[in-house]
Structure formats: C-alpha cells, structure tokens
Amino acid sequence: MASLDLLTPHLGKIKIPGPNQLIYKDECVYSFDNPESETGLYVSLVTFLGFGRNYVEQYFQKTDNAVFLHIYTEKKPVPEPEKTGDGPEKKITRLAIGVEGGFDPDSGKAKYTYTNHYSVVALPGFHTYPWPNPDLPEVVRKSVQAIIDAESPFKMAEMAALEGTWDGETREVSVHAVNLKQLDNGVKVPPSGWKCNKCDLTNNLWLNLTDGSILCGRRFFDGTGGNDHAVEHYRETGYPLAVKLGTITADGKGDVYSYAEDDMVEDPYLADHLKHFGINVQQLQKTDKSMVELELELNQRTGEWNTLQESGSELRPLHGPGLTGLNNLGNSCYINSVVQVIFRMPDFVRRFVEGAPEIFATFPEDPVNDFNVQTAKLGVGLLSGRYSRSADADGSQEGLAPHMFRQLLGRGHAEFRTKRQQDAHEFYLYMLTLLERHSRHRANPSDCLKFSVEERVRCGASGGVRYQQRAEHHLPLPVPLAAATNAALLRDRRPDSTQIIRPEIPFQACLDSFMKEETVEQFYSSAVNEKVTAYKITRLATFPDYLLIQLKKFTIKEDWTPAKLDVSVDMPWEVDLSCLRSRGPQPGETQLPDSAPASAPAPLYNDSLLSDLLEMGFPVEACKKALYYTNNSGMEAASNWLMEHMNDWDFANKFEPPETQTAAGGCSSLPLDEASVEQIMGMGFERAQAQRALAAAGGDVGRAVDWIFSHAAELDAPAAAPPDRRLGCRDGPEKYKLIAFISHMGTSTMVGHYVCHILHEGRWVIFNDNKVALSENPPKDLGYLYLYERL
C-alpha cells in the first residue's frame, strides 16, 4: 500500500457530500467509460464527478484535485435455467419499448451478477489504497462511504421522468360519470348475443350508458373495426359515455370511452350504470379484446411494426465505427433516431467529433450540464467504434446509454424530460434550437440544413406582389390522399376484408400539393388600403447541403381525434427539386408598398371562441389565424378553417396579420411591445439590441433571445439594409440523394416506436435502438423524416 503521507497535502480540499449532492459514479462525464469498463471509473472526492482513465489525468492536471474513489464492477454471466414451458408470458399492454408494460428490449438476453470493487487512488502515479481501510484519514473515509451510499443521479432522474408517464391501462375518471343521465326507457340488455342496432356487426360493439343503445365502433384505418355507428349516435344525441361489450369484468371494470372528452376514461360507477339496463357484472366474463390489445394487434397485423423493423429478414448484425447502437432509456427511441441521423453530416462531425479534444480541453466547471461537452461525448461515442462491440444474434449490442445527454436536453422542457413518447420532428427542431443557442462563438453545424423559403403574395385587387423570406431547417410536404394511384382498389375493398391495402401516393403529388397556389382571405393590401383576397405561392430561394423532408402524416380526423395517415409514399432514392426554386421578383411586377399605413386596424379575437378552440387542442397561433380569417363568425367557420389548413407550412407559427407585414421579410411595422423590450433588457442586453431582435423575431420574446445569441456579431453594427433573398443561407444545385430516413410505427406520435435507416459506406443499415444490422429491404415508402444530401 502506498504511503498515507501522499494524501496529506490534499486533505483540505476533500469534501463529504451532503444528502442533496449529485454524485456521478455511473459514467465518465467526458466518455461512456463506466465501472464495468476495463479500467473502471474514478470519482473525484472534491467535485464528485466521474472520469474514465483517458480523462482523469487531464482533469488532475487542470484542477489539481488528486484523490479519487476508483470503482470497478466485475460482471459474470449467470447460467440460464432450463426452460420448463410453465408460467404465463409477460402481458404487453403498451405499444412502447423499455417502459413498464411495453416490450422488454432485454428479453432473452444473458443475465449477470455484478460485484463492486473499491479503492482510493491518488494522482499523480495512481497510488492505490484498499477499501475498506481504517487507516485512511477520517475525511477520506467519510467521503468515500457517502459516495458509495449515494443514490445514482441517473436513477433519481429516471424516477422524476416517470412522474405522470402515460400507462396503457391508467385512465382519468370521467367528469360525466358522477351525474350521468340514464333514461328510463325500459331497455334491458341480455348477457350475450349482442348486435349493432344499425347494422349486422356482432363485434366491436359499444353500449351507450345513457340510453342503452348497442352500436358498432369506429372503422380502423385498415378497413376493419366497425361502421362508426356509435360515434354517429353521440353526434346526434350528445350522450357521452359508452362501454365496450365483452371487456366488462366481474369486478366492474371495462373499456369506457367518453366521446365528450375524446379519450378512454375510468367510470367508477360502471357496475351501477350497467345495472340500470339489467346487467349484473358479477355474471360477466371478459370475452373481447381491450382497446390496448386491439391497438397492439392492429399494428402487428398491418405489418408496419414488422416491416419497419425488417422482422421478417435474416438481419446480419454489424458493429464498428459509425455502427454503435443506443439503449432505449424508456421511450427515447425518438431521440436515438434523430441523433443517429444528424451525426451523418460532416458539419456535425467536424464540430462535435473532430472538435471534441478542443471542447473537452476547457474542462468546464459543470461538464454534466455543458451542452457542447455532452453532445461531443455522444458524437465521439457513436462514431469512434470504441463502444461498438460484437452484437448478439438478434443484432443487439450493449450500446451506449446517453443518460447525461438526455437529462440535459430535458432540463426545463415539460415534454422531453419525461418518459412519454414524443414526436421525432419536434425533437429535431428543439435540438437545432439548442445548437443555435450554444453556437455563439463557434460555427453552427445546423447551417448545412438551413435554407431560405420565399413566399410570393399577389394582391387580388391591384395585382401588386410582395416577396417575403424566412429561414427554415425542414421541408414539410403534405400527403394528398386524393392522389392515391390505387384509389379504385381502396374504394372497392370490402368492409369485412382483412387484406391490408395502403393508399399509394406518388412523391410528385406531395410536391404539387406543396407548390399549389393558396388563397389568402382578408389580406390587407397596402396598395388599395383595404382587405382583399390574395394568392400565395411558396418556393425555396436557396437549397441547403442537406435537406430534411417531413411527410405530414399526423393529422386530426373530422371527429377531432388525432390520427396518423397509414400511407405508402414513393420517396425517390435520387431527386431533382429544381421545380421548387424561386425566381424572385420578375420584370413587369409591381411591388406592394413596403409597410401598412398607420391606420391599419389591429386584429381582434373573440375570447370565448378562442378559448373553445384551444380546448380542442389546436395551437394558440393557429386559433388566432382561424378567427382572423373567418371574422370571428363562429365555431363552425373557425373549426372548418383549421381543418382545411392543418397542413399549412406555418400552421402553428406565430401569427402575424398580413397588414403588419413588410416586404423586407414580414417584420411588423407597428410599435414593438414595450414590456417585451424591457424583458429582454432585463437579461443584460441594450435597448437597441432588444428592439432589433424583437423586430427580427416578429415580437416573440423567446425567438428574439435565440436571435440575439446567434447574431452576436451583428448586434453592435448599425442597422443594415434588408437582407438579400438568401438570408445568409448556403446555396447549390437542387439534385439530392437519400442518405437516411426515420420511420414511426403506431397510430400517434405519443405512442409507438421509431427506427432509422442510414446509408453507411454504401450499405443501408437499420438502427433500432441498440440493434444495428445490415438492412435488406429499407422500407423507404413508410418513413416520416427523410434526409437528402446534395449530389
């Protein structure tokens, strides 16, 4: 054992962690080394940060913190017991992976025992002292014991993330259950032999708990299910609750749907409500599938789950540089897919992989919460191949577990900090926002995705035109169902057919839908000083190095329920998008005056109508647009407008009435909100800077702050002339090839699973969390997000 005198100079710095101290003893803050790694993990007795062998010496040289607890975990496989065939299989209750009730990604894997070995280490020289050791100074013993006893911050964060997590069988009590109206109409329901009152269906039947009518449920997107008679009955009567016959159990439970609340709900008085119609629940047995079971079965039957995961193929596992899997940390597949894809672009590799040594060399005081450090750590981990070892037979690797990265992204974000499934597209945009915010002194790697969108608006009264530009990082394309090439086959399919037929949509039809001229009602024309009908077309003024296309598959049905379009879109391997190129102002065009007259009326919104629209779940800015363009004329007109415009590019963007827009880019010519100016000044910025940022962001404070961080060099410069059409974006030829796509399986962005396919060294590879394998049949027609690279 080394001399204890070596510890003496450092005893004054050693700390004993308190109960609220976070101790990072599970993983290196700069790499994915952990106690199970060959060289174990070193935890500082000063800062309680963990370091792998590659970084602990650099940390010591930078900080002079010399004393560490070394943790090495010995991992031994446990012999698997012989299978007897007894015992029930685990019940799957959620269309999710890695969470309670979902699919277990570790099912069938080898089991291990883990034994922790501890020692105290002093640098330089890695002098080692065994643990436990009564000869160690008291402060060292207390510090080490507190570290060993402390709860892992990863586990603490996981418990916090689980709060409020949706569970497939947990439902809210319906507000209609307590005082549910039940008619004394003499209806008595037999215990069996049920049939829809309006058709001949004998399955998927729902008993309305107000009048006792038995009607079939909704038609599923694959043509099975019911004929929508139960929901039609609700529209006619307003009777809110119905229970699915065949799901009722002897303890008074069953699948209850509230049409008024548009959700599956809990009815604690279900037994009494059924008794009203002569049903004794104690004599009933569950004979039909629950809605959760049906959704699972439906997804598997339609083949989407199997197709996107290529379950029917003999997938050959891959490993090595650029072929590292990511563990699913409880519905984190949307994060896994996005980060796998973004690190396929050279700009991201240069910034966070090749630039990692420079980022790490700064050794920030709080590397756990440093965005650049944690992103570089992830990039190096994914592409270096250091953590990509030989996979199991099913393609599963041990994989990286990016706990710190996920916690950092979720901090302060109500949705991404939970274990609920989220939309991969929304996360992609959020990730780019963080990149912009943390690129003040560095090149922003997302610039390779940025392009200038140009809108041409033509006044219907004067013929004058206005060109406006804005920067975007994705191209959202509508999916026009009416353009299906197999429409006749879909129309002639029998309602009781089990054959799966998806609408087949040509890619060109998606482009045509995007490019078509849009009518803009009540456009304030500065040429004639009144509201008129205008016509808008949208094109691209520049083309980025990498183009991300989003197919707008998620929508809202006529009954206001969310739905996903189950379609097949013929996405091209290579494409020429020159048809999207904007040509800018043309000879002979008359430009509309730059700004509106001072008398331009400010928009007014009916507060009651706005509140009702918000309760339907629409974004507030979309609701404002609906009320504006329908003159606050009523719910029907506003809701119809929303349904018609759900696929608009800027559906949820901040609403800026046409009369407040200028040719210079759409910024308001009206005075800026003084409260917003003062709010930004309170963050330490000058008035002129706050005013410029708010003008550039259309008055939105959050966007203005992001603008300030990304335009630091411009803030002290005098106000420049209106930017050119390029908005500083890169430009080049319009020809692209597909290099990656992300697919979603499930009926909603809030449930299901994401996988991605990536073109790696000339071969298509499927990344399904920690499963990495050679793709035999890339299902590019079923994707959601597509990344194209310029040829």
From TrEMBL:
It catalyses: Thiol-dependent hydrolysis of ester, thioester, amide, peptide and isopeptide bonds formed by the C-terminal Gly of ubiquitin (a 76-residue protein attached to proteins as an intracellular targeting signal). Keywords: Hydrolase, Metal-binding, Protease, Repeat, Thiol protease, Ubl conjugation pathway, Zinc, Zinc-finger. Residues 324-791 form the USP domain. Residues 172-281 form the UBP-type domain. It is an enzyme of class 3 (hydrolase). Residues 604-645, 671-711 form the UBA domain. GO terms for molecular function: hydrolase activity. Pfam families: UBA, UCH, zf-UBP, zf-UBP_var. Its EC number is 3.4.19.12. InterPro entries: Papain-like_cys_pep_sf (IPR038765), Peptidase_C19 (IPR050164), Peptidase_C19_UCH (IPR001394), UBA (IPR015940), UBA-like_sf (IPR009060), Ubiquitinyl_hydrolase (IPR016652), UBP13_Znf-UBP_var (IPR041432), USP (IPR028889). CDD domains: Peptidase_C19B (cd02658), UBA1_UBP5_like (cd14294). PROSITE patterns: UBA, USP_1, USP_2, USP_3, ZF_UBP. Belongs to the peptidase C19 family. This is Ubiquitin carboxyl-terminal hydrolase. It comes from Galleria mellonella. The lineage of its organism: Eukaryota, Metazoa, Ecdysozoa, Arthropoda, Hexapoda. The gene is LOC113513201.
